[in-house]
């Protein structure tokens, strides 16, 4: 790559290495004393660099530095990726020309935008929204003693926030921190079974100018040092010993994506991992390295199982396939081409047909049982509309209704899966907010729920008559804010404190009743219809919602990139919510009723387990080793996204399990919405 150093920024942004492969984890070379501008030419790829300039800046390949009038290019296609992508603005200087940058949908090819206003710009892929790229546009006239000082800008607009924010805002700092954590794999949080550690992410050690609400500029002499203090880093990491596991075992296994693992035997990242819920040890890990011409599973994002739970269906999110493989041997059985960027997959409880959300396109796709070919497509848009980009859908227990979030429409749709014309199967639309990303449904299917990723909310949507709880009445829809009491500028939570974020809470403690839930992703209702858990990616915590009130009752700690949630059976009765994290090699276990008294106000994190290969793990892959600034590391166990415990115990599915799979379930767990059947 040829750099054009029209301007030189003296050592502001830390170490830098030039050239090399775009998809790499090469160790940065020592700083040369001066940092030339980094051209904002982003090659969007399968990870872990995602928006890649080819230049390492403090560990990230996704930060460019440019002058006003520079054209930003987004290049999508082989050999970097087989999927379409949709780069859109997420942060930009308020009033900047041509902003916000928005595409009509995903594309393969090249698009560009010219940045004329100095300040901070950030972009995300609306289809794969943890893919981030940033451009710092510097004003050649902004110098101090002959040194150019980058400036975030006076006011910044943020996708999903209704008012511009001063650049010296808590929310801006949190998003910038999230960018550095996501885009530098060495910043991901590593837990170990036999030793404690500390988490100290790297940021750009650069002076940055920010502005308060009155427009008064403040110089942050070193952004890295400031963030370490602001976010109470380093953060202690406990060892995940047996004492950290839940005291009461679960039933069966926990199956989850470990999507961001880099492996020696395959080109594409990711595996599907099976954890024994009795021992909390990883039993099996499969990457299927011989499929896809040696690429293996391509970013396996979400899984489900056949009715007998011997066949696993995995969506390859950066490809176009749903892949079926044997649960115990890892042998590939079949692949079906379903469409670009298939995200989530479930089966219809009555027929065992697969319903796949085609995130990169405009449809839900039905596949014959066993992954035996596409049978029909349900259109996610209405005539004359653009591309919806449906992501994490959910199905009713009878298999007749689907709810899907439309990431590109800011809405969620209900589908009649028995409609005579699948192109006209949408029965209802509801506004959600910015980038609806995932949905859930009550066990009675009277309500659906959708998370607004960038608007930090959950919206309750009645599927028939008014069913959402709003005080003492039932309403058609209800917005549930996850940032109630949070000040986006000062960071104040509930009106108290210093304005700094809360310190990362001790293990298994409450994260604070007013702690914000930022960038919510998956949300899942317990099979007994009492509690919903929401995973929040940027704030690294979980919101717990009382379904009888449709209100947040508690906030619990999680880990960086908190992402996937689903419920499994707890041995002896009750349920566990299993919550994954993209940027940590652990899964958290939530018990909504740890005392067994039915008091959901006592909901708590009751343990964690590791997701990397253990001494007795059966696997067809081995983790690749990298050399970083702190020594050798791997991405083993990283990328926790979709999760589903086996046996599947949701209402509608659990009743149809073969008798052998019900053996460890209690009477209540076998029929969660029919307590009278148990006397």
Q: What would you note in describing this structure?
A:
The protein is mostly beta strands. The protein folds into two domains: 8-172, Immunoglobulin-like (Sandwich); 253-484 and 510-667, Methylamine Dehydrogenase, Chain H (7 Propeller), CATH 2.130.10.10. 4% of the residues lie in helices and 38% in strands. A six-stranded mixed sheet has the order 7-12-11-9-15-16, with helices on one face. It has a five-stranded mixed sheet with strand order 50-23-22-21-53, with no helix packed on it. β46 (562-569) and β47 form a beta hairpin. The longest helix has 14 residues, at 170-183. Mean pLDDT is 90; it is low at 1-35 and 495-511.
Keywords:
single chain; 679 residues; mainly beta; Immunoglobulin-like; Methylamine Dehydrogenase, Chain H; 2 domains; six-stranded mixed sheet; five-stranded mixed sheet; 53 strands; 4% helix; 38% strand; disordered N terminus
């Amino acid at each position: 790559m040829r750099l054009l150093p029209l301007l030189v920024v003296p050592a502001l942004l830390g170490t830098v290495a030039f050239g090399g492969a775009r998809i790499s984890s090469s160790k940065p070379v020592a700083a040369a004393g001066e940092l030339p501008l980094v051209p904002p030419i982003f090659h969007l790829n399968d990870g872990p660099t995602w928006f890649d300039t080819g230049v390492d800046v403090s560990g990230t390949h996704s930060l460019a530095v440019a002058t006003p009038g520079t054209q930003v290019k987004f290049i999508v296609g082989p050999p970097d990726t087989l999927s379409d992508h949709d780069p859109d603005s997420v942060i930009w200087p308020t009033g900047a020309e041509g902003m916000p940058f928005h595409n009509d949908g995903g594309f393969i090819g090249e698009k560009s935008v010219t940045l004329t206003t100095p300040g901070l710009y950030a972009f995300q892929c609306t289809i794969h929204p943890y893919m981030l790229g940033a451009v710092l546009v510097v004003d050649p006239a902004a110098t101090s003693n002959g040194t150019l000082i980058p400036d975030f800008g006076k006011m910044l607009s943020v996708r999903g926030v209704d008012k511009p924010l001063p650049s010296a805002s808590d929310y801006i700092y949190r998003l910038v921190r999230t960018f550095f954590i996501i885009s530098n794999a060495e910043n991901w949080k590593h837990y170990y079974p036999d030793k404690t550690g500390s988490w100290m992410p790297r940021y750009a050690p650069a002076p940055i100018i920010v502005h308060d609400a009155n427009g008064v500029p403040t110089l942050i002499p070193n952004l890295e040092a400031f963030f370490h203090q602001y976010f109470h880093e380093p953060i202690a990491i406990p060892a995940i010993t047996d004492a950290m596991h839940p005291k009461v075992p679960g039933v069966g296994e926990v199956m989850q994506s470990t999507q961001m693992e880099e492996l020696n035997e395959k080109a594409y990242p990711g595996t599907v991992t099976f954890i024994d819920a009795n021992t909390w040890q990883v039993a099996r890990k499969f990457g299927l390295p011989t499929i896809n011409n040696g690429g293996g599973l391509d970013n396996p994002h979400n899984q489900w199982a056949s009715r007998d739970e011997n066949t696993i269906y995995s969506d390859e999110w950066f490809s176009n396939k749903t892949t079926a493989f044997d649960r115990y041997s890892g042998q590939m059985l079949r692949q079906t081409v379903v469409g670009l960027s298939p995200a989530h997959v479930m089966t219809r409880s009555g027929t065992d047909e697969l319903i796949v959300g085609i995130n990169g396109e405009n449809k839900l796709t039905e596949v014959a049982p066993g992954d035996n070919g596409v049978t029909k497509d349900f259109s996610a848009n209405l005539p004359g509309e653009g591309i919806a980009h449906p992501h994490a859908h959910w199905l009713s227990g009878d298999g007749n209704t689907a709810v899907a979030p439309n990431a590109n429409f800011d809405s969620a749709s209900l589908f009649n899966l028995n409609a005579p014309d699948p192109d006209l199967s949408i029965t209802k639309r509801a506004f959600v907010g910015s980038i609806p990303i995932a949905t859930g449904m009550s066990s009675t299917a009277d309500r659906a729920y959708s998370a607004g990723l960038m608007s930090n909310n959950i919206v309750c949507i009645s599927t028939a008559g008014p069913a959402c709880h709003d005080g003492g009445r039932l309403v058609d829809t209800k917005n549930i804010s996850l940032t109630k009491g949070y000040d986006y500028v000062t960071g104040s939570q509930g009106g108290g404190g210093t304005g700094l974020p809360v310190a990362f809470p001790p293990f298994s403690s409450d994260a604070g009743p007013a702690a914000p839930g930022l960038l919510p992703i998956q949300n899942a209702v317990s099979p007994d219809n009492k509690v919903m858990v929401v995973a929040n990616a940027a704030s690294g915590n979980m919101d717990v919602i009382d379904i009888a009130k449709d209100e947040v009752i508690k906030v619990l700690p999680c880990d960086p990139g908190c992402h996937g949630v689903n419920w499994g059976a707890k041995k002896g009765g009750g349920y566990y919510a299993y919550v994954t994290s993209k940027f940590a090699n652990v899964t958290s276990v939530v018990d909504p009723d740890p005392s067994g008294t039915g008091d959901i106000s006592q909901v708590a994190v009751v343990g964690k387990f590791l997701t990397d290969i253990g001494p007795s793990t059966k696997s067809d892959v081995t983790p690749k080793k990298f050399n970083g600034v702190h020594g050798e590391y791997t991405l083993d166990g990283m990328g926790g996204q979709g999760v589903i415990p086996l046996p599947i115990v949701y209402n509608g599915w659990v009743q149809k399990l073969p008798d052998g799979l019900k053996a460890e379930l209690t009477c209540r767990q076998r029929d969660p919405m029919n307590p009278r059947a148990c006397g």
